[in-house]
Amino acid sequence: MKRNNTLPATATAATATHLVLPDQLAQQAADAVRELLAEAAAANTTRSYATALRYWAGWHQGRYGVELTLPVNEAVVIQFLVDHIQRKNKTDLVSELPPALDEALVAAGLKAKAGPWKLSTVVQRVAVLSTAHKLKRQANPCELPSVRTLLSRARRAAVKRGERPTKKTAITRPELEAMLATCDNSLEGLRDRALLCFGFASGGRRRSEIAAADMRDLRKVREDGYIYRLEYSKTQQAGVKADSTPDKPILGRSAEALTAWLEAAGIDEGAIFRRIWKDRVGPALLPGSVAAVVKRRARLAGLVGDFGAHSLRSGFVTEAGKQGIPLPAVMAMTEHRSVASVIGYFQAGAAEDNPAARLLK
């Protein structure tokens, strides 16, 4: 008996609607990659990329009178660099960005203020344009030798001029004690005390991690302690398998401050750190609000320096160096992946206790 291999018409039609042609598959794959990258990226990263690309579009329109399209020409990227990177002539530091265009970019809200950028901002803008080309799978002018060489020489020139990356002032034990002393027993005072202690004692948490702290990840381990399971961190977002446990201990005074806040605010689920409207507890704090709390308490304490949320992180590492805590133990708390990124703070803390500095004592 001859077998009929022909599908019924209805089955053939149904199958055909699910067939994906190669060109369609390529487009679907590209869309899926973009969606995956957007989902994986932190909100701050997404915003900064959007800001950078808007600036590129505005600058290109102002410079050349036409819209920006990818791929961008090599000469355009080099013009962007010489427009924004300062160089030293016989008398002063100069760049090629026309003053009228600079003012127009400020007026359009694409630039905070007129004048030169820091080199780090220029590098970030170029990195974003490079990423855009990679996602579109187009020839990437940002990786050409001419562009890479120009950026490399610009970095060297900046170092020779004495320019260094700016860092937030570290909040070590003395600064933290002064800030805690400004916190009273009001709801706001209890929250801020708990936030500062949590952010410092749990390993110098980033502002995004503090804002994302949730009761589901907090458990009591004894009368005077908690374990906070860090399920949201920059390391985890990068998809890197951490060598350390995500469990971060919160003990002693820090645990007491956290308990006092949770009981006063009546929090038993959801976000740990929240906004306060008069005497009412509101929704979760935003990362920017965490930074605002740190700055306000530093100001109330009369501290001098450039303080921000990152001050808790750098201060934790610096204080650990002062107290001689082994570097691996510190990195297990902070979840730093690179020794190079943490060693500067650690060595700064340990510098004053270096026995080699006491040879003439």
TrEMBL record:
Q: Which residues form a coiled coil?
A: none
Q: Where is the Tyr recombinase domain?
A: 166-359
Which keywords label this protein?
Chromosome partition, DNA integration, DNA recombination, DNA-binding
Q: Which molecular function GO terms apply here?
A: DNA binding
Question: Pfam families this protein is in?
Answer: Phage_integrase (PF00589)
The protein's matches in PROSITE patterns, at most eight in alphabetical order, are given as:
TYR_RECOMBINASE
Q: What is this protein called?
A: Integrase
The species this protein was found in = Lysobacter concretionis Ko07 = DSM 16239
